[in-house]
Amino acid sequence: DDGSGSRAAGAQGGDEGPADGFDPGAPPPFGLADIRAAIPKHCWVKDPWRSMGYVVRDVVVVLALAAAAARLDSWLAWPVYWAAQGTMFWALFVLGHDCGHGSFSNNAKLNSVVGHILHSSILVPYNGWRISHRTHHQNHGHVENDESWHPLPEKLYRSLDSSTRKLRFALPFPMLAYPFYLWSRSPGKSGSHFHPSSDLFQPNEKKDIVTSTTCWLAMAGLLAGLTVVMGPLQILKLYAVPYWIFVMWLDFVTYLHHHGHNDKLPWYRGKAWSYLRGGLTTLDRDYGWLNKIHHDIGTHVIHHLFPQIPHYHLVEATEAAKPVLGKYYREPDKSGPFPFHLFGALARSMKSDHYVSDTGDIIYYQTDPKLAAGAHTSD
């Protein structure tokens, strides 16, 4: 059941699609198999040597940037280093992300080893993140079951105190959320990515979580040791500031892949939700010169529907799928060399996308006028 009969009961809040009569919440006239058939066969082929080549390239750049910054040790150079290195930490995360999806290679052991090394180096618990991210993909676009930047139902939104609301919607705070999400998840959900008995995990996954948390602790210990040897200021400059730039990149990109389109896009629950309908509400984004640096993470729609496609085939796969997707694919706004245009999309969304109705199967974001005006008062 694709839930087409639930529309009347559920279309609440916001403008429902563009003025040209296209309804983004209507069931698509194509299926996953139609999209899959349009994508060339070679796009599904994983090349472990090519994947490792990207890892080597990124690690060499990270080490070279750190060595150059330490050698220059100039307050003119440090801000440039922080922006560049934070972006490279984010690129490392994306490669580890591919390991988590199995799009890095067909060798599960290689994926796990590389994923653990890359993610532990930037203080991400690999298996904990991998499992919750799988939950996100399996439930994308579902109000209650999605795991990443899912909407708050109105009742939950109204129950938040003013400080929590501010942290969730007042920039820059939402762009610093990721480490806190890893520790305690989103409002309305409990559990930690570090704890083997967390609600996020099945009993047979406990061993995986212990492994990842141990690797995370080893990295934290290494950083503590380096702080003693090199001094806290040097570690702050070389690692801590780039780490927070990476966090901002991650929150910025993941939020904008599911929010901030010019037209309101639906979220689903109940029988209206399907894997295809949920995936079609994700958005591609253009990051200009940075597209290749962070491994075409902006080609998000096809990635969400078929996460096993390697990142270096996503642009071609997306082009091949566009004729099938039709208006369900939203062409991203073209970027200049740097994606400054996306700051406007982020700010607009934070001002208007606050909560969704507690009822209905096809629903749209609604705006809290007080919050939009900057009055962070508790109801």
Describe the fold and architecture.
This protein has helices at residues 7-10, 32-38, 48-72, 77-101, 108-121, 126-138, 154-159, 162-169, 178-184, 206-230, 232-256, 275-279, 290-293, 300-305, 314-325, 341-352, 369-372; strands spanning 267-268, 362-363. Helix 3 (48-72) runs antiparallel to helix 4 (77-101) and helix 5 (108-121) runs parallel beside helix 10. A two-stranded antiparallel ribbon has the order 1-2. It is mainly alpha-helical and 379 residues long. Residues 1-18 and 375-379 have low confidence and may be disordered. It has a domain at 56-279 and 336-374.
Index terms:
FA_desaturase_dom; mainly alpha; transmembrane; 53% helix; 379 residues; oxidoreductase; two-stranded antiparallel ribbon; membrane
